[in-house]
Amino acid sequence: MIFDPGNLSHVRELTLDNINATRIDKSTLHGFGLFATQSIKQGCILCLLDGQVIDKQIYDHICSALLPSINGIQSYLFMECNYLNEHEILARTFRTKYSYINHSSRPNVSIRYHPIRVVANQNITEGSELTIDYREEPLTKSYLARPEKQFLQGK
Prior knowledge:
Layout (H helix, E strand, L loop, with lengths): L7 H7 L7 E5 L5 E5 L8 E4 L3 E4 H11 L10 E7 L4 E7 L7 E2 L5 E4 L4 E4 L10 E2 L8 H4 L11
Parallel strand pairs: 7-10
Antiparallel strand pairs: 1-2, 3-9, 4-6, 5-6, 8-9
């Protein structure tokens, strides 16, 4: 199979399923999104986020070095992380359902730390899209300066 990132079937097949009771589908917010397949109660832990804690500069160096050999699938390898502070990230090598939670300034889920997890902020009805406020993570200035991330400027 030649991977097509715009093909919903390919996306579903090649994304690791780390959040139960959800499905990836087309979103009115942005491309694809993550939707509840059943009601989710406020306070429910949807998933624990795992990975490797790594220095952001080392992570960027590894990604740059590998990019020529993974051309075409880079959006599924070395693309998912959570910022822990200005210098460290929690990196996941393969794309998971977590990466399909779109941004909202009025999110229905949030990240909590120690351990790092995704928690429902409110009751979520079946069929609703899960959203998170990306600005709640300690994002770096260089991340926020990227042209495609301008929507995150200001609160």
